[in-house]
Amino acid sequence: MAQDNANRKRSWAEPYKIKMVEQVRMTTVEEREKLIRDTGFNTFLLRSRDVYIDLLTDSGTSAMSDRQWAGMMLGDEAYAGSENFYNLEEAVQNYYGYKYLVPTHQGRAAEHIISQLMIKEGDIIPGNMYFTTTKLHQELAGGTFVDVIIDEAHDSDNEHPFKGNIDLDKLKQVIDQYGRDRIPYISIATTVNMAGGQPISLDNLKQVRELTRKHDIPIIHDMTRVAENAYMIKKHEPGQEKRDVRDIVKEICNLTDGATMSAKKDALVNIGGFLAVNDQELFDKARNMVVIYEGLHTYGGMAGRDMEALAIGIRESVDEDHIRARVGQVEYLGKKILGAGIPIVKPVGTHGVFLNARRILPHLSQDELPAQALAAAIYVDSGVRAMERGIVSAGRDPQTGDQIYPKLELVRLTIPRRVYTQAHMDVVAESIEEVWLNRENIRGLKFVYEPEYLRFFQSRFDLI
Ligand code: PM9
Fold first, then answer.
1. CA separation for the pair 137, 454 (Å, rounded)
2. Which of 1, 259, 334, 438 to pair with 8, CA 20 to 30 A apart?
3. Domains and CATH numbers, the chain
4. Is the dihedral of CA 233, 239, 241, 247 positive or negative?
5. pTM for the structure as a whole
6. pLDDT at residue 12, as a whole number
7. Are strands 53-54 and 384-385 parallel, antiparallel or unpaired?
8. Does 229 contact ligand 1 (Cβ within 6 A)?
9. What is the pLDDT of residues 334-368, one digit of tens each?
């Protein structure tokens, strides 16, 4: 469809039609003011019934296709040897090329297993910017994450098309400083969530592969949004424009030694994940460990029906029309917000539009939690739920307990896949513009409750 219209003047439309709807509820500003106060100004603590357009996350929030729902009916719920496991294994081997599969209930369970198996006390794990759960599992295993992403990734105005790239000089320096024995693997994400959904280029990944091969250091790939990354490579990397997204996905995976996957994003399911590796010895250990924390190695925390939906979701995730529409919708919202002169992370990422809270609220210091305050203000304005990605998400240094001050202080408007229409995006853009025009009235926040781990999920705040 999209291909057919490529050279003619036609409006863009979603490459699907809606078979089932879920009613959403609009609340009043007065109700929302009370609700956000009652939930300690943390959008994670709101009930979803009080949310109009839910852009908290793209995780587990996708609409499944009719084929995926049909697959759910084929769930083989045998404790051992479920047919759906073998279908999933085949999909992982076919589309991603990894040899061995260990299913888990979601991404962080795979991160737990790989971290416990590969990291020892005092180890260093270089990577292209931290992700909250990934870094925490590395730390819990005794390691320390070191950011070796290019500097451009920390500058929201820089329009580098591949802000997920590794700075090879930084990586070489880390290898020289700590030595191979203290680096169990390099952690590479496609795309980089905390940088604003920014991709890594194939060329950069190849260079990292060459360097790590020389030092015999494995690459563990966080492939949560690999199809989105592959689409950006096709769109922006010279020489890649004619390739199928599925070929690029496979090549990315082939350049790495193993992967953790939160299938709740790219792969279009509401729950699920896996660890996939090429090394048989590591696989044997992971397969043994999964039975302690998740379940037997042929379901690892997922129901048979969920594994079937995932096998189908993987196939759909690399469909050209799907991925073009998915990333295109995010770009549509980003361009609207940019057009209103509102500072966002540039270029627009693949899974959400990231507002630059520091620039929007220059009257607040970072200790006054501008992104948290901005997300709360957006909710009050329109019932649109967004998420803080700044100082609250960055947390504390595990050794000193000191607050970490990230360069990026962002609010993420994350777009679920195949859920909202262009009209919803228009409403979101209107609300962001309204909040922007009234930005001087937004007050800062302070912590009143702070849990030890991943504090952004459960902290409570109050107005300063
Ligand atoms: N990402 C997200 O909203 C959900 C929870 S954190 C707010 O962006 C990457 C790149 C992720 C991710 C989750 C996980 C963990 C690993 N890597 O949530 O455990 O974006 O399935 O995956 C979230 P699970």
1. 11
2. 334
3. 12-58+320-463 (3.90.1150.10), 66-317 (3.40.640.10)
4. negative
5. 0.96
6. 77
7. parallel
8. no
9. 999 999 999 999 999 999 999 999 999 999 999 99
222 lines ligand 1 (CB under 6 A): yes
**Token pair in block for residue 286:** 């992971």
**Segment (H or E) for 138:** helix 132-140
Region 310-325 average pLDDT: 97
According to DSSP, the β-strands at 258-262 and 273-277 are antiparallel
User: Catalytic pick from 246, 265, 315, 336?
Assistant: 265
> Which atom of ligand 1 approaches the CA of 58 most closely?
3
Report the distance separating Cα 376 and Cα 25, nearest Å: 18
Say how far apart CA 260 and CA 225 lie, in whole Å: 11
- Mutation probe of ligand 1 site: the residue of 42, 58, 133 with most atoms within 8 A of C-beta: 133
Q: Give the span between the Cα atoms of 174 and 127, in whole angstroms.
A: 11
Which is more confidently placed, 375 or 14?
375
Residue 330: what pLDDT?
98
Return mean pLDDT, the chain: 97
135 CA → ligand 1 middle, Å: 11
Contact, 204 vs 150, CB < 8 A? Answer: no
pLDDT of 1 strictly over 50? no
What is the SS3 assignment for 383-449?
CEECEEECHHHHCECCCCCCECCCCCCEEEEECCCCCCCHHHHHHHHHHHHHHHHCHHHCCCEEEEE
Best probe residue, ligand 1, of 193, 225, 228, 393 (max atoms within 8 Å of C-beta): 193
Looking up tokens 């029309």, which residue turns up? 321
Q: How far is CA 291 from the centre of its chain?
A: 26
Task: Kindly state the percentage of the chain with pLDDT values over 90.
Answer: 97
Distances (CA, A) of 92 to 59, 86, 165, 267, 319: 19, 10, 25, 11, 15
Q: Does residue 8 surpass a pLDDT of 90?
A: no
Nearest residue by C-alpha to atom 5 in ligand 1: 59
Say if ligand 1 is within 6 A of residue 82 CB.
Answer: no
Hey, what amino acid is at 45?
L
Atom of ligand 1 nearest to the CA of 454: 6
Residue 394's closest CA among 114, 56, 152, 154?
154
Mean pLDDT computed over 61-80: 98
DSSP letter string, 168-197 = HHHHHHHHHHH-GGG---EEEESSBTTTTS
pLDDT, tens digit, 9 for 90 and up, residues 126-135? 999 999 999 9
- Segment 104-114 shows an average pLDDT of 98
